[in-house]
Amino acid sequence: MPLAVTLLVDGSESMHHGLLKQATAAAAAFINAVPADALVEVLSFNEHIDVRYPMGSDHGAAALALAGMSPVGQTTLYEAVLIAIRNQQHASRSRSVVRSSRSAFHSWSRNELCGR
User: In Å, how far are 1, 33, 43, 45 from 100, measured between CA atoms?
Assistant: First the structure.
């Protein structure tokens, strides 16, 4: 079953001093590494959640959507995860949500997303 991935990128003020640049570079590398038939969605979050690239198959456009981010505002991680889960439920593929932050990537599997 093809993969559908939602990347959550922390764009809050806590990502200053080059941390956001590192996170977006890692997210772009991740996008470039997923299989060609995978769907990708890119969300950024700070005080607001921004759909930077909606679920789609253009990996180049998804990676470009990471450009121009700057670290501002508070972190609304939980709201971002809820939106990602909602969006993932519409994908009829193996699902995964991946969060890029200052410390590492964290991912949630299909079973975790669906509460199984």
Answer: 24, 15, 10, 11
Give me Rg for the CA atoms of the chain. 13
Q: Which two tokens stand for residue 81?
A: 């995860």
Domain boundaries, the chain: 3-114
Q: Would you say the C-alpha torsion 97, 27, 38, 44 has a positive or negative sign? A: positive
Q: Which amino acid is at 27?
A: A
What's the CATH class of domain 3-114? alpha beta
> Which token pair is 82?
């809820």
Give the per-residue pLDDT at 109.
46
Q: Which amino acid is located at 79 in the chain?
A: E
Nearest to 63 by CA among 55, 50, 53, 49: 53
The list of the chain residues with pLDDT below 70 reads 1, 78, 88-116
* pLDDT value of position 110: 43
pTM of the model: 0.72
Q: What is the DSSP letter of 42?
A: E
Q: Minimal CA–CA distance to 4: which of 114, 92, 112?
A: 92
